[in-house]
Design brief:
With about 325 residues, this protein is mostly beta strands. The chain contains two helices and 25 strands. A five-stranded mixed beta sheet has the order 18-22-21-20-19, with no helix packed on it. The chain has a four-stranded antiparallel beta sheet with strand order 1-25-24-23, with no helix packed on it. β19 and β20 form a beta hairpin. The termini are far apart. Mean pLDDT is about 90; it is low at about 1-5 and about 20.
Length: about 325
């Protein structure tokens, strides 16, 4: 039952955005190895190194944009891992955190022995496995990751209305925040998705199906009020969220776009930066460039497209950021 529920959730997560037609924009790009890679999350180090999780083939790819060197850094199946979603390069602890979920029943070729959902920790220098922590709750689904200044890890559970926290020195998750606003819609779909800290010290999260951006107040390491932010337009399948500065963010919309979002009080304004991606999944910023991962998930999760082939190789795209978009 646990596996079945997680699989149904994944189909809904990706399927909802499949009806939106998009054409890959003409941008500089770097290929991702793997004929069934289906890149999901992307993160970066301060030196510009990128790490991309593979939903289909599993494992994590390391990319050096300046040399265009790309190689599998964390091997598929390492530490029991399956399909990799959220990734986060935590340089302070020399850890590459990754969300792993078992999607084998959907045909994901990712190797590994896990049968559920877990947060994996790999050495950021070597890619070797360090630890694995299973998510609690009913059929959990680890999606994205944030880290605070004290080294606590926060993950979104797309199947349950909870943000989970793993404090330094602990071996199990605690529920950091739980709210009905995080819930999966009764009509079906996915709940929590992207997560990051704002410059105000609060957590910001997205809900994929409902298309909302929410703030979770944080004080002394504890969660406070949860606020749904009103926007200048309806977001379409908001996914990854990455902080810029002055409470502004880069935001991926699964319908095909990269936005800049600015929050003022309880409201936000979303401005398109670049559109035309085919099911984009995440973004990482390096200087004045936003690297966007294009998942093409329809070719894996949509039964009507099972016999069709995605555009190969899979790629991440470099989107130049104008001055007003990078702060």
């Amino acid at each position: 039952m646990k596996l079945r529920c997680s699989i149904e959730l994944v189909v809904l997560i990706f399927g909802l955005a499949f009806s939106v037609r998009a054409t890959t924009p003409q941008l500089d790009s770097i290929p991702i190895p793997g004929t069934k890679a289906f890149p999901e999350s992307i993160t970066s180090k301060s030196d510009g190194t990128l790490y991309v999780g593979r939903l289909g083939d599993g494992g994590i790819v390391r990319i050096k944009p300046h040399t265009r060197e790309n190689a599998i850094f964390v091997q598929p199946g390492a530490l029991g891992s399956r399909s990799i979603l959220g990734v986060f390069a935590d340089e302070a602890s020399n850890t590459l955190w990754a969300c792993s979920n078992d999607l084998s029943a959907l045909g994901a070729p990712a190797k590994g022995s896990d049968t559920g959902s877990a947060l994996k920790a790999f050495d950021l220098r070597t890619g070797n496995g360090k630890r694995s922590v299973s998510l609690p709750g009913t059929h959990p689904f680890c999606n994205d990751i944030a880290v605070d200044a004290k080294g606590s890890i926060y993950v979104t559970d797309s199947a349950n209305p909870t943000i989970l926290k793993l404090s330094p020195g602990t071996t199990t998750f605690e529920v950091f925040a739980q709210d009905s606003a995080f819930s999966v819609p009764q009509s079906g779909g996915a709940g929590l998705d992207g997560i990051t800290f704002g410059s105000d010290g609060n957590l910001y999260v997205t809900t994929y199906t409902v298309g909302e951006l929410l703030r979770v107040e944080v004080k002394d390491g504890k969660a406070g009020r949860v606020t749904k932010l009103s926007g200048n337009r309806q977001l379409q399948f908001p996914d990854a969220l990455r902080a810029l500065g002055d409470n502004s963010f880069l935001l991926i919309e699964g319908s095909g776009g990269l936005d800049r979002v600015v929050i003022r009080g309880d409201a936000f304004a979303a401005t398109p930066i670049h559109d035309g991606f085919l099911t984009p999944t995440s973004v990482a910023r390096i200087g004045t460039t936003a690297w966007v991962s294009e998942g093409q998930g329809a070719f894996f999760f949509d039964p009507s497209k099972k016999k069709l082939s995605p555009s190969l190789p899979f790629r991440i795209y470099a989107v130049p950021l104008r001055k007003e978009h990078s702060k």
